[in-house]
Every structure is written in C-alpha cells, then in structure tokens.
Amino acid sequence: MKTKINQEFKTRFGSEGTLYASAGRINLIGEHTDYNGGFVFPGAIDKVIMAELKPNGTDKVRVFSIDISEYAEFGLNEADAPSQSWARYIFGVCREIIKRGGKVHGFDAVFAGNVPLGAGLSSSAALESCFAFALNDMFNDNSIDKFELAKIGQSTEHNYCGVNCGIMDQFASVFGKAGHLMRLDCRSLEHEYYPFNPEGYKLVLLDSKVKHELKDSPYNKRRQSCERVAARLGIETLRDATMEDLDKIKSDITAEDYMRARYVIGEKDRVLAVCDALVKGDYETVGKKMYETHEGLSKDYEVSCEELDYLNDIAKECGVTGSRIMGGGFGGCTINLVKDDLYDNFVATAKKKFNEKYGHEPVVIDVVISDGAHKCE
Ligand code: GLA
Q: Which terminus of the chain has a lower count of CB atoms within 10 Å, N or C?
C-alpha cells in the first residue's frame, strides 16, 4: 500500500510527503452503549487507512483517493464543503480542527486503505483519525491531545456526514494498542487496556456483504429513542437507568422505546460481566454474553438483518463459543469467538450454508489487534 501511495503522490504532486495511518476497529461487546454513556470494549485492527500528506503553500486541499480513483479539491471555509461524500470526512476534520482554534493550511494528499467498506469496521473513523492525527502533526506541533482528536472525528460525523454516532470508533482508532482491547467508559472517557490473547481461540469476522451504511439508516432513530427514555426518567443518559426504573415508566413510553432501552440496559451489564470474565480467562462466559448481545440487537434493538441472524444460527450449530452482529448493524459482519479446533469446520460450514441460501459466500476477515493512529516510519 505504501509504495502505491508514494508513487501516486509523486506522479500527482511531483514530490514526497509524510505517511500516516490509522486503523479500523472491532468491538468485543458493548454495542450502541457509547452514546448512552455506557461502556464499550473495542480494539484497533490491522486494517488501515494510510495517507501521504504535504503542505502545499496555498489555502486549498487537493486530495486523491486511490481506491475509488477520485480527486477532490476544496478550500477550508465552511462554504467550501466538497460534494463527494468521502471528501467530506477530510473537509470535516479540517473544519473541526479550525473550529477548535487549531491550524490547518492547504495541503496535498493521497490515500488508500484496506478496511473493508460497509462491513461495520469503521473505515470512516480510520479515515478521520488518520487525517486528524496527520494535521495535528503537520500544522499544530501535536498540541491537540488524543481525546480531542477522537472528538474531532466524532464531530465530523455529526456535522458533515449525518451520523449522530458515539465516540467508540474514533476513540479505538486513535487510542488502539497492539495486542490489547480497551474498556472505555464513554461518559468519563476513562479507559483501561486489557491484553487480549485468548489462548485456544480465534476471533474471526464473517462479512455478510449486506451493505451497511449508517447515514440515513435508522441509526439516528435508535439514539433518539434512548434519549427520549432518558429524558422521561429525568437522567442524562441510560447509563444511569436500571430495569426497575424502566419498568416503572413502561406505560408512559412507546413499546418500541421500551424495547430499545431494555436492550441498552442489559448491554451495559453484559460489558462489565465480560470484563470480569476476561480477567479470569473465562471465555465461555464471554461467548455466552456475545450471544445474548446478538439476541438483544436482533429482537429488541432491531438492527440485525436476516443474513446476520442466519450467520449467528450457523455459529450456534457449529458450537462456536460466542457470536454476534458487530458495530452499528443494518448489515456488515458478525464477530465470532471460535475454539481453534472448530475454526475450519465453522468457516467451511458458514460459507457453504450461506452460499446455498443467499447465492454468495460471506467474506472471512481475520483480524490482529494492532496500533491506532500513527506516523509511519
Ligand atoms: C457505529 C457508531 C458507534 C457505535 C456503534 C454501535 O459504529 O459509529 O459510535 O454507536 O455503531 O455500537
């Protein structure tokens, strides 16, 4: 990827810039809890967005995306927003830095990536944090702290891309550390790294290839449901709600809002249970909680789809320890915790059965837990 980017940069801009990269993420458990002030358990992965950048002495950004073979050029004022959706992520990052009093001048950039798009692995967070990290290094002497870099990515989604997301993806992408997952408290942003090396197990993702696109998806509606219930309970977020609290107001809220909140409250407890289990090396409990999360995401939160439910059923039939839909939902992939000796059979069975039903195989994505945003040597 490096060579391709270097060559393209040289051809287009006639010189050499500096290379930066940032990662997509997985999340072991804690889905749709981030914007509810709860806990999540993500880690950065070895699938990255890599970009070469160089200041160009003008007030324009000139950027080329190798993967979709498109070029965009834009200024740095609010009115200069580019029309291409991929370029809006970069424009948004520039604007959010400027809004916070940081500096951004014109620059040239070429980027490429291997984070599968629409699979729920946060390719957009990888893109945002790669550019946020790079612009902090290039124009701001790294004076913007990492928490703010993550928030710059999140605000980009809110203000320029139409997704009212939580902080998980950008946080994982900026703070990721090789070999470690993070337990992140999304309210205080306190986080703790957990070494993750489940001996005797593999973590594998199966991409259903059902395209996941959070913009204009009911993702924002899920968030609104949670906010309505929290407001009715007189609390800031569902982080502070219990099932008893929820049951007390059941008759005052819609059945749908009740189901959404029931999922979130359950998920909050599951993340904490998984943390305890991980410390004890109790992967059976981790797996059991993953299945419970899937059930909740599918039945109460209703962000699964037929294909992902089917992959989850196959995992159960094959004796896979834990399996669930991962990320925002509405497509994308399942994350599976599989015993080493069941791995081959599971993958082969999933491919065969899924193909028989849907006419294509799910894509197997092996991931290694890796570092987040960085400058490449
Ligand atoms: C998307 C959002 C995150 C989070 C997840 C669901 O990835 O970007 O903030 O809400 O969905 O856990």
A: C
Q: Whose CA is nearest to atom 9 of ligand 1?
A: 166
* Residue 201 dihedral angles phi and psi, to the nearest 5°: -130, 155
> pLDDT digits over 151-178, tens only?
999 999 999 999 999 999 999 999 999 9
Query: What residue's CA is closest to ligand 1, atom 5?
Result: 328
Domains in the chain, start-ordered, CATH in brackets?
2-197+371-375 (3.30.230.10), 201-367 (3.30.70.890)
Distance of CA 154 to the CA centre of its chain: 11
State the chain's mean pLDDT as an integer.
Answer: 95
**Which of 10-19, 195-204, 332-341 has the lowest average pLDDT?**
195-204
Over residues 291-316, mean pLDDT = 97
Cα–Cα distance between 31 and 298 in angstroms, integer? 12
169 noted as active-site residue:
yes
Calculate helix-pair angle for 283-295, 306-317, nearest 10 degrees: 150
User: How many A from CA of 27 to the centre of ligand 1?
Assistant: 10
Active-site residue identified among 169, 257, 309, 371: 169
Pocket of ligand 1 (CB under 6 A): 31-32, 34-35, 122, 165-166, 168-169, 327-328
Contacts of 161 (CB under 8 A, 6+ apart): 85, 88, 89, 92, 124, 215
- In tens, the pLDDT along 210-256 reads 876 666 678 999 999 999 999 999 999 999 999 999 999 999 999 99
Closest ligand 1 atom to residue 163 Cα is 8
Task: Match 């049951």 to its residue by tokens.
Answer: 247
At residue 4, the pLDDT reads 97
Nearest residue (by CA) to ligand 1, atom 2, is: 165
Q: Which of 251, 279, 290, 258 is nearest to 30 (CA)?
A: 290
Give the pLDDT confidence score for residue 376 in this predicted structure: 95
Q: Whose CA is nearest to atom 10 of ligand 1?
A: 32
Q: What distance in Å separates the CA atoms of residue 81 and residue 68, rounded to the nearest whole number?
A: 19
What percentage of the chain exceeds 70 in pLDDT? 99
Ligand 1 centroid–CA 30 distance in Å is 10
Strand 60-65 and strand 107-113: the pairing is: parallel
Nearest atom of ligand 1 to the alpha carbon of 125: 8
Q: What is the whole-number distance in angstroms between the Cα of residue 57 and the centre of ligand 1?
A: 37
